[in-house]
């Protein structure tokens, strides 16, 4: 029988792409999302892209902190085989301004989810952690054994949730938990039908570049040109969102391994790309020239961050397939077909 997976935050950027890969992989999927940072149009499009298998998708608009609603959902299902937990707030700057909102949403939401899972005997979890827990790493590539730290309240929620998961597993070894540390997810599904649609001014590089390309913003500000890197700009490990989504299927499969406890894996490509290299790749893919404004460093930014991919390759049998040219091609395909994301000029800012 097909496995049923609960996906929290499944209407969001990474969630929607992962739900599609799950449906294609013949899983049944139940999505829970409060739509705070997403549109239900994403769910409709995922169902369409999945064709016949779109029938295996169910959506519930629920806030994870609404325990009775979550209880009711779990009680109405015979059981979930596993949960993939994406739901959370993710804007670093906002988390500095509104730490309580971040702790409440991300930590309370996760604890509520874990309590309900435990009460219903569902003890398999894949959690969205982040490379942010490596801070400014002393060396690269970052391996999973590196010390972890938090640079801001958002990062602290990831660090705390990782620790909570380790404690839960120590207290009850029946729990099987995989913590996935994402590097920098970019791009979109090659159909151009689903992609990233941030609300407000984008914090991250590629959503900003995309909005400059479609004329919504005048220029990209490049934060920092004096780093000790090939061209002075920050270096990151960009990973195609479809590769990242496939990493979740690999993690789900790994949860069936009798020996797995609470384990961490990096999901990255292992390659470092500078801001200027990424912009050049996007210029090439789009045929546009993104106007640049050179500026000082953004507070809290690390210089060079990229992943060691060895552990995921060996143990999850997963490896990213796409390079930055494909990432930029698909980012542009999505942006040019949906310049206002899932909304319209009136609904966006
Ligand atoms: P996203 O904002 O597009 O998706 C998160 C989804 O969770 C949204 O659809 C939002 O509506 C939902 N949500 C938030 N709080 C909720 C709550 N209390 N109850 C129910 N739904 C809720 O973000 P994303 O980029 O898809 O990120 C998914 C996860 O991956 C997040 O946990 C994020 O912190 C993590 N992550 C993202 C990145 C990145 O660069 N995108 C990097 C590392 C880790
Ligand atoms: N950058 C610019 N201009 C912008 C935005 C970004 O020059 O307008 C630069 C940054 O300075 C950095 C690089 O582009 O050098 C990447 O920046 P992002 O904001 O896209 O990504 P970060 O690596 O800084 O951080 C993001 C998330 C973190 C997460 C991390 C790893 O914001 O929460 O990816 O997943 F931890």
TrEMBL record:
EC number, as in UniProt: 5.1.3.-
Molecular function (Gene Ontology), one example: UDP-glucose 4-epimerase activity
Domain NAD(P)-binding residue range list: 6-330
Reactions that this protein is recorded to catalyse: UDP-alpha-D-glucose = UDP-alpha-D-galactose
Pathway this chain belongs to: Carbohydrate metabolism; galactose metabolism
Pfam family membership, one: GDP_Man_Dehyd
Top-level enzyme category: isomerase
InterPro entries for this protein: NAD(P)-bd_dom, NAD(P)-bd_dom_sf, UDP_G4E
Cofactor: NAD(+)
GO terms classed as biological process: galactose metabolic process
UniProt keywords, alphabetically: Carbohydrate metabolism, Isomerase, NAD
GO cellular component: cytosol
Family membership: Belongs to the NAD(P)-dependent epimerase/dehydratase family.
Protein name in UniProt: UDP-glucose 4-epimerase
Source organism of this protein record: Stephania yunnanensis
């Amino acid at each position: 029988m097909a496995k049923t997976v609960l996906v929290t935050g499944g209407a969001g950027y990474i969630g929607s792409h992962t739900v599609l890969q799950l449906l294609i992989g013949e899983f049944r999927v139940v999505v829970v999302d409060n739509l705070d940072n997403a549109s239900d149009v994403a769910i409709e499009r995922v169902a369409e892209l999945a064709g016949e298998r779109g029938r295996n998708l169910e959506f519930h608009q629920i806030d994870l902190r609404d325990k009775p609603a979550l209880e009711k959902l779990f009680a109405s299902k015979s059981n979930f085989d596993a949960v993939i937990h994406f739901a959370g707030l993710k804007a670093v700057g906002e988390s500095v301004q509104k730490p309580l909102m971040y702790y409440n949403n991300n930590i309370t939401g996760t604890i509520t989810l874990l309590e309900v899972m435990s009460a219903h005997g569902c003890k398999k979890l894949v959690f969205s952690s982040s490379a942010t827990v490596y801070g400014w790493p002393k060396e690269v590539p970052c391996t999973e054994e590196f010390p972890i730290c938090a640079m801001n309240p958002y990062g602290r929620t990831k660090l705390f949730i990782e620790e909570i998961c380790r404690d839960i597993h120590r207290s009850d070894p029946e729990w099987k938990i995989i913590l996935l540390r994402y590097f920098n997810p970019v791009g979109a599904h090659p159909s151009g039908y689903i992609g990233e649609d941030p609300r407000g001014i984008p914090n991250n590089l590629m959503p900003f570049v995309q909005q400059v390309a479609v004329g919504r913003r005048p220029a990209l500000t490049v934060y920092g040109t004096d780093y000790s890197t090939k061209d002075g700009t920050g270096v990151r490990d960009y990973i195609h969102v479809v590769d990242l989504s496939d990493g979740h299927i690999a993690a789900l499969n790994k949860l069936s391994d009798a020996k797995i406890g609470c384990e961490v894996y990096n999901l990255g490509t292992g390659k470092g790309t500078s801001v200027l290299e990424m912009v050049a790749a996007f210029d090439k893919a789009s045929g546009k020239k993104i106007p640049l404004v050179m500026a000082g460093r953004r507070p809290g930014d690390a210089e060079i961050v990229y992943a060691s991919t060895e552990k995921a390759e060996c143990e999850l049998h997963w490896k990213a397939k796409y390079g930055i040219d494909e990432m930029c091609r698909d980012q542009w395909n999505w942006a040019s077909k949906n310049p206002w994301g899932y909304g319209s000029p009136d609904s966006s800012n």
